Amino acid sequence: MFLGNSDVIDDLDEAGGVDDPAPVREACTVLEALNRISGKWAIGILLNLSHGPVRFTELERSVPGISRRMLTLTLRNLERDGLIRRTVYATVPPKVEYRGTEMADELYASLKGLTAWAERHRDAIARSRDSYDREQEAAATGDL
Predict the structure, then answer these.
(1) 33 CB-near residues (< 8 Å, 6+ apart)
(2) What is the pTM of this model?
(3) Which whole-number Å values give the CA distances from 4 to 12, 32, 48, 130, in the listed order?
(4) Taking 70 as the threshold, does the pLDDT of residue 91 lie above it?
């Protein structure tokens, strides 16, 4: 289990190498997973897949602003991480569906909590940003 950067530092030998590379691997895996799901498009895709299987074109329409290439890359990475399954049906034209895995379902529960938090605090965040921006603008113009 990754407990923080100190775990990795504690395993450095005198030459600066790593005595036990396991904590480094664990840290990299955890950080990679967090980076993957916190990316610009992954949450939107995972939320769409939480309702059941979705075809590529449906995802493309339901995730505003995503390009076909970025959708393809994000889907591949989520599949590689075990968060989605891709099913290709032997039809003409080929039909491809994506669905979330059990791991994605577990993550969805956390995403629902995060979404609820963001909705509850939306107005406060907007007010804070406006206040901060006004203060920064006043500081830049010397109007303090």
Answers:
(1) 81
(2) 0.66
(3) 14, 14, 32, 34
(4) yes
